[in-house]
Amino acid sequence: MAKIQMKTPLVEMDGDEMTRILWQKIKEILILPHVDLKTVYFDLGLPHRDETGDEVTVEAAEATKQYGVAVKCATITPNVQRMEEYHLHAMWKSPNGTIRRILDGTVFREPILCKGITPYVPGWKKPIVLARHAYGDIYAAADFTAAEGEKVYLVAEDKNGNVTSRTLVHEFGGAGVVMGMHNTEASIRSFAHSCFRYALERKLPMIFATKDTISKIYDGKFKAIFAEVFKEYEAAFAAAGITYLYTLIDDAVARVMRSEGGMLWACKNYDGDVMSDMVATAYGSLGMMTSVLVSPDGIYEYEAAHGTVTRHYYKYLKGEETSTNSVATIFAWTGALKKRGELDELPALVDFAKKLERATLTTIEEGHMTGDLVPLFSRPGVTPQKLSTEAFLLSISSRL
Ligand code: NAP
Ligand code: MG
Predict the structure, then answer these.
(1) For atom 40 of ligand 1, which residue has the closest CA?
(2) Minimum CA distance residue for ligand 1 atom 24
(3) Closest ligand to 307 CA?
(4) 16-52 pLDDT, tens per residue?
(5) Both ends of the chain: CA-CA distance in Å?
(6) Does 272 contact ligand 1 (Cβ within 6 A)?
(7) DSSP 27
């Protein structure tokens, strides 16, 4: 069989630790035998980020802007301990944060469902795709403690330093705490565009929620901007047979719990932080969660939602057998290949990606899986069997 030819290359961002090992094996075992893979390669592994003063991350993001579709391996976000472990020149920022800032994108997290792995919420039959607004609010706030008798104000100054408004937050009868937070119209608008665009692309009904009954100006602004941006998408939503619902956050939580899934849930920053962990846990393993960064102008970067699986990597380094789930990383590749295939009008590439997804799920459904899934699996007549990292990939390959 001739290999499938690509037109435009994918931007490929390599990463760290166990996922770097998976990355190589997925390409070798599952992709290269079938696809004449074209990529523009960037090594975002921590040693190379350090050597380049993190320039490589910026270059990879710029290339993603140029080519439109990227696939990224999980990467280490350095902390004090990693500084010592890797003898770093600086505590480099999170690559995902850097890429997100450059692309001005929104992250959509989506669980991968298969037969035999039942969500903790039994009513959830379809994926719930969660979008988190990753800018501002409490994540970029100023806060401090206030002492008894203090009055705390919010004060605004114009460019020349003249006070334009002064609002009393609280007069403290006893000690307390204060926080000032912000968001920007531009960021909220970008977030709205990314969400409506992605809902349309995936043909998923969409929910957005805030607490605008309490936070009339702050959350009210989110509600108003979403309503305004939705006007541009209303006709397309109707044509696609999907709906957009704005509601209060507590009502949204109740609706999502009662639903059978199959929706895009757009969340403010804090709601998204909390709810994404709840949704991910309810669907099973971190190894079964993908994530895609979508910019408001339609640039896509695919990756697994989990990290570099450090504990497994240390075992691997000691020569011990590992059983690391590669499903989310495989789906990052298939997501990127499908998107590239659609944009370049290469049905063979789209078809290959779909077959690879099917082969991966069938492997699990027939009882062959990595260790993390074994305790979650239950299917009449099928006894789950734990495979090593590599044996799982070979098992998928034989079905493919
Ligand atoms: P993690 O790599 O997601 O792993 C946490 C634990 O979850 C693992 O130890 C493992 O549990 C389980 N797990 C996650 N993915 C799995 C998989 N594919 N197969 C089987 N089990 C899996 O998170 P972390 O330990 O908090 O972070 C490790 C490194 O990843 C950090 O340096 C962090 O900066 C980085 N990180 C990167 C990204 C990203 O690039 N998007 C995201 C998050 C974290 P057991 O050990 O119990 O088997
Ligand atoms: Mg969280």
Answers:
(1) 74
(2) 307
(3) 1
(4) 999 999 999 999 999 999 999 999 999 999 999 999 9
(5) 14
(6) no
(7) I
In this prediction, residue 281 carries a pLDDT of: 83
- How high is the pLDDT of residue 286? 85
Q: Give the CATH number, domain containing residue 52.
A: 3.40.718.10
**Ramachandran bin of 16, using left for φ above 0, alpha for ψ from -120 to 50, beta for the remaining angles:** beta
Q: What is the domain count for the chain?
A: 3
* End-of-domain residue from the set 252, 283, 314: 283
Q: Is the CB of 360 under 6 A from ligand 1?
A: no
Ligand nearest to the CA of 306: 1
For residue 72, the ligand 1 atom closest to its alpha carbon is 40
The DSSP H or E segment spanning 314 is helix 310-317
Q: What is this structure's pTM?
A: 0.90
Average of per-residue pLDDT values in the chain: 95
* Domain-located, residue 374: yes
How many C-beta atoms surround the C-beta of residue 148 within 10 A?
9
Q: 282-308: per-residue pLDDT in tens?
A: 888 889 999 999 988 889 999 999 999
Indicate whether residue 289 lines ligand 1 (CB < 6 A).
Answer: no
Output the residue whose Cα is nearest ligand 1's atom 43. Answer: 307
Q: Element (H or E) spanning 155, and its range?
A: strand 151-157
What pLDDT is recorded for position 210? 97
Give CA–CA dist 278/290, Å, rounded.
Answer: 15
pLDDT at 346 over 80: yes
Q: How far is the CA of 280 from the centre of ligand 2 (A)?
A: 10
Percent of the chain with pLDDT over 70: 100
Question: Is the pLDDT reported for residue 193 higher than 90?
Answer: yes
Q: Is 329 in the pocket of ligand 1 (CB under 6 A)?
A: no
100/195 same-domain check: no
Q: Which ligand is nearest to the CA of 277?
A: 2
Q: Do 262 and 214 share a domain, yes or no?
A: yes
**How far does the centroid of ligand 1 lie from the alpha carbon of residue 309, in Å?**
4
Question: What is the C-alpha separation between 179 and 171, in angstroms, rounded?
Answer: 14
